[in-house]
Amino acid sequence: MSANPKKAAGERAAELVDDGMIVGLGTGSTAFYAIQKLGERVREGLPIRGVPTSEQSRIQAEREGIPLVDFAETIRIDLTIDGADEIDPAFNLIKGGGGALFREKLVATASTREIIVADESKLKERLGAFPLPVEVVPFGWQFVRLKLEALGCRATLRVRENRTFVTDNGNHVLDCAFGAIDDPEDLERRIGAICGVVESGLFVGLAHQIVIGKTDGTIEERYRPQPPSAATGVR
Ligand code: 5RP
């Protein structure tokens, strides 16, 4: 068994992919291992097609030889494997540490099954220690920031290597330090109602299964007790 918890989780999730599936390919250092393993399985003959959630994942998948399908050309994604920055006991998530939250959320919403891969440091009693990433359009982003701060956070424009971070969609990210989030569903709705917000990194009712790699070398799999449709009423 691998001593690397992220690798163990990613590789385990890749084993859950079956012949003929259309697979959402997540983003980040844990999803990386799932894509790597899927590449191995494809080279051994597994017939799948992938829908990447970022340019980073697209480049990796192409290098691995995983056939890709344009999201615009498919109406079904059977299973998505993605990482998370925080996971609460109800399987609510904070995502977007890598800035791919919008495509990740769209792919998750279209997926029959969403598997989250992570090491155990991502498990939290409540979300919010990790500042919530919110993707916003560059036009008027300062106004959007004020609106977000009115919801009770400190919002910081994401900068990487001394430059404003730009998402794959050409937008900015505001990292919103709310502290402990009591009601993720309500906060997601209120953020989504702000004009200029593209999407928040709050994922509510989207994850079906989590695969946790542990430092002792074991892997824990947990299943959401009820389908997301029962939690959100929309899926
Ligand atoms: C990218 C994400 C990632 O899935 C999240 O940041 C977790 O990354 P990692 O597996 O590297 O810890 O949401 O937008």
Largest beta-sheet characterization? 6 strands, mixed
Give me the strand/helix succession.
HEHEHEEEHEEHEEEEHEEEEH
Mean pLDDT reading: 95
User: What fraction, in percent, of the residue positions are helical?
Assistant: 25-40%
Strand order of the largest sheet: 2-1-3-6-14-15
Low-confidence region ranges: none
Number of helices: 7
Strand runs, count: 15
Classify the oligomer. Answer: single chain
Task: Based on Cα principal axes, name the global outline.
Answer: globular
Question: Structural class of the secondary elements?
Answer: alpha/beta
**Which ions, cofactors or small ligands are bound in this entry?**
ribulose-5-phosphate
C-alpha end-to-end distance: 36 Å
The Cα radius of gyration reads 17 Å
**How much of the sequence is in beta strands?**
25-35%
Helices and strands in order:
Blueprint: H1 5-15, E1 22-25, H2 31-43, E2 49-52, H3 55-64, E3 77-82, E4 86-87, E5 93-94, H4 101-109, E6 111-119, E7 132-136, H5 141-149, E8 154-157, E9 159-160, E10 163-164, E11 172-177, H6 184-192, E12 197-200, E13 202-203, E14 209-213, E15 219-223, H7 228-232
Parallel strand pairs: 1-2, 1-3, 3-6, 6-14
Antiparallel strand pairs: 4-5, 5-13, 7-11, 7-12, 8-11, 9-10, 14-15
Helix pairs in contact: 1-2, 2-3
The site of ribulose-5-phosphate has 18 residues, from α4.
